[in-house]
Each structure stands twice: as structure tokens, then as C-alpha cells.
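User: Show me a protein chain along with its predicted structure.
Assistant: Here is one chain, sequence first, then C-alpha cells.
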Amino acid sequence: MTQPTLLVLAAGMGSRYGGLKQIDPVGPAGETIIDYSIYDAIRAGFGSLVFVIRRDIERAFKETIGSRFEDKVAVDYVFQELDKLPPGFAIPSSRSKPWGTAHAILMGDEAVSSPFAVINGDDFYGRASYQVLARHLISPDPDPAMVGFILENTLSEFGSVSRGVCKTTTDSYLESVVELTRIEPSEQGIHYTDAAGQAHPLSGKELVSLNMWGFTPSIFRSIREQFAAFLAAHGQDPKAEFFIPSVINEIVNQRESKVKVLRTPASWFGITYKEDRPRVVESIRNLVSSGEYPNPLWANR
């Protein structure tokens, strides 16, 4: 049985957070969120790691993060850079923003040869989430899959967040996912603000994607084809981003594949803003105290 790979999206410096939050310690023995993600993934049966990073953070990331795991599991690195484009395309002079999450996943093409999961490096998804995704990925010929969380449990008190809001069928397959980029709570309730500045209410019970996906390597062909189309249509827009929900919607709409929605009972938390960090530290301390994780985390590995 082939063990699945974990592809960790860790190229972002965390501009809203104000630093390289992927290496910020949050555990009682100095562990990072990535430490807990990798620990949960190994327990669930993942057999290798691929980190998507940027060249300019390579040394700091490898010394602070990658070196923790190289004696526990196979580790590889790929690099998300603006010039990683299909033939015939060039970086617009006005472009400084990364191309987006789907582009980041595409960077794993040459390093990933087995079914794999995708996660954000700065999100804590919980043990059960990795277990349900690993079980799916080791099943024969697995469909693409998304682990779904409840919107109201994924917000920050300190500013807006981006979430992929999902519609599903009665048999738990994805109908659509829409990336909403300015979601926040207020006295009037949860809402998002569209590109025109118009606010729209949300119930908070919506199922959302937090970029925890399961794929086989065939996804790279779809992403590559769609990225070329994205660049042709939007490549000169300095703010346009190529999000994975757009790729998933196209796959579903064109009936290339069905996308399974996997629900998880696990708690999610993450650091979007500096002010989120104390809550994350407290949440992890509670999980350690309850026996969910050892202290230090890697004591027995």
C-alpha cells in the first residue's frame, strides 16, 4: 500500500501577521503549528512531506522547520516563484503578488507521485482531519476530496479572513466552492464584503474549505491547463490570483471528476493576525493537558 504524501503550502510570509508565522513557536516546548500538522499526518499514515516555500526563505525554513522532520519522514522542497510560468508567458512588470494557491500546488508536480493531501502551513486542522483524509487517499482510485469545516468556527476576532464557501449534494459531493476573501463578524452578524464594497450576510453555518484537500497526481494536468487559461485572461491584472477553488469548480462543472466532501469533528484554529496567537497557544496547551499530544511533541519519535 502506497502511503500518501503531505504537500504543505508554506511560501507566504504572512503579511497581515507581520512575519514568518510558519516558524513562530506556539507549543509548550517551542513547537510550531507545522510541527503539530506533521505529527498528526504521520500518525494518520502519511509517508512523505513536500514543502512549498520561496527561495528567499529557504535557509531559515530548512533550519527551523525542515530539519525537525528529516529523521522522521522523507522531506522534499519545491519553490513557488513568480517566474514559474507556462511557456509563452512572462511576469508582468506590475506583478509582485504571488499567483495563488493553485499555482502553489502546481509547484509540487515533479516532487509528488502518490495520492497527496494539501494543507496550509499556518492552519491547525486536528488529528481527526488527517485520519479521515488519509483513509480516503489510500482507498482504490480515490476521487479528489475536500475536508469541510463550519464557517463560524474558523473566524478571527481581529480582522477579516478568506474562506471557500461550499455547496454540497445530499450524498456529500461538492457542487461548488466560492472563495470569499473578506469575511468577518460584527454586531450585525457574520458577513463578507465583495469587490465592489457591498456587504452580504452569512449564517455562520456554511461549510467552508480551509485548503485541506486530497488529490491524485492527475490534478496537476488540470491545474496546468487552467493556469494557462487564467494567465491569458487575467495575467496582466496585478491583483488577480489563481485559487484552487476555481480549479475545483471547473473540474466539477466539466464533470472531469466528482469531489468528495469529508466532514471532520476536529477543531480548527490558525494565526491570521498577531492577536490570534494567544488563543492558539491556549488551545494547544489544552490539547496537551488532555493527553492529545505529548510534551515535548517529538519525545517518542
